[in-house]
Design goal:
Elements: H1 3-17, H2 21-33, H3 39-44, H4 57-61, H5 67-80, H6 96-102, H7 111-120, H8 125-140, H9 150-153, E1 159-165, E2 168-173, E3 175-177, E4 190-192, E5 221-224, E6 234-237, H10 238-257, H11 270-273, H12 277-285, H13 292-303, H14 316-320, H15 331-352, H16 362-370
Parallel strand pairs: 3-4
Antiparallel strand pairs: 1-2, 1-5, 5-6
Length: about 375
């Protein structure tokens, strides 16, 4: 997903869930900050590198792809952007190495998303924003894994966009190119993706890079033949998935606020959007590279307040200017805390499942320290 959903749509979902304008802005900022909180950024503000929630392209190009380097990559991307759906998923007649990668495939309504939402309950709004980013990405990034893998994440020429035509859809073969300097050509279904690399563990085979930004566009529907699915056809319906993501966020935040008693899988608060459902569908289905303006206008109608645009360094001075003992109480300090705790939880679950692709993480110890479990 992009800033349009992680920031502006998350603001809308937060406000509908019952948070104030200010709280909704803080949740939205935290959700979007997950996409920019790299080690480079943390070094700039003198924050702990263990709190990184993403990696810049330059960082990835310099990343090691030996077992230790791959574990580091997997810890970040599987925790925050490609949360595994089923760490016990079965795959017959394959090696353990392949099965471990197969079990990291992202998808909604897994046990880990329940743990993610439950972990945010009773925590500051920064942790709520982190949880909403992770939850939303389980829908957008479904069927891809947060670890480099050609066999899991590759795409081929059998990749078609489904374009609405009357009461049905027409198919148009997607053309992938590698010109990152040019925007995607929506009219002609020409999209930028990562370069094909036959090396199983190439950085080019991380996440949905081989499918470009298609998973990040709310309007798009496509079908393709992933190798991990034995080349059976999969159809991805983003408009349907994004609506579920939006209403599941509302339900999750009502649980975090204490307005509903539990967070269950496959529950969506469609009632909360009521008569606004068609307006939301219009935004989701509109064919455009970025839907920020539409979500922003909708959010301002909801609250009657101005939604400030996302400014990456909004809280940097507060953090850098605070004494060492006070840093944890700043906005960024609380985000760092929440990020390390969440990452530690996910890695612990991956390790407990017998999967070594995330290693035995230092973040797990830090997570227990933050939660007061280390004596």
């Amino acid at each position: 997903m992009q800033e349009d959903f992680h920031y502006y749509a998350t603001y809308c979902a937060s406000f509908i869930a019952g948070y104030s304008h200010k709280e909704s802005l803080d949740i939205a900022y935290s959700a979007q900050f997950v996409d920019v909180c790299s080690r480079t950024l943390l070094s700039k503000i003198k924050g702990p590198s263990d709190a990184a929630t993403t990696q810049l392209q330059l960082e990835l190009m310099d990343a090691r792809t030996d077992p230790v380097g791959l574990q580091d990559i997997t810890r970040i991307w599987s925790s925050f952007h490609f949360l595994p759906r089923d760490l016990a998923a079965e795959k017959k007649n394959c090696s353990k190495r392949y099965r471990d990668k197969f079990r990291l495939i992202c998808g909604p309504n897994g046990d880990l998303v329940v743990k993610t939402v439950e972990l945010a309950k009773g925590k500051p709004v920064q942790s709520v924003g982190i949880a909403m980013h992770v939850l939303a990405d389980t829908w957008a990034h479904s069927n891809f894994a947060g670890t480099p893998s050609l066999v899991i994440n590759n795409t081929n020429y059998v990749f078609y966009e489904l374009l609405p035509e009357g009461d049905d859809f027409k198919e148009k073969q997607i053309k992938f190119v590698h010109k990152t300097s040019s925007p995607d050509d929506l009219e002609n279904s020409v999209y930028t993706n990562s370069l094909y690399q036959s090396n199983e563990n190439s950085i080019m085979n991380l996440g949905h890079g081989r499918a470009g930004h298609l998973p990040d566009y709310s309007f798009v529907r496509f079908r393709y033949l992933p190798a991990w699915g034995e080349y059976a056809e999969i159809t991805k319906d983003n408009p349907s998935d994004y609506l579920k993501a939006f209403t599941q966020m509302i339900y999750a935040m009502k649980y975090i606020r204490g307005d509903v008693p539990s967070f269950e899988k496959d529950v969506y608060d469609m009632e909360a959007i009521g008569s606004r459902k068609e307006r939301i569908r219009e935004i989701i289905n509109k064919r455009q590279l970025l839907a920020s303006d539409d979500w922003k206008a909708f959010g301002e109608e909801l609250s009657g307040e101005e939604i400030e645009d996302f400014v990456i360094d909004r809280y940097f001075d507060e953090y850098t200017g605070a004494d060492k003992k006070e840093k944890n109480d700043t906005f960024i300090g609380k985000f760092i805390h929440g990020a390390i705790v969440h990452k530690g939880m996910v890695i612990d679950e991956i390790v407990k499942s017998g999967n070594k692709l995330a290693g035995v993480a230092r973040e797990s110890l830090l997570s227990r320290l933050f939660k007061g479990e280390q004596k």
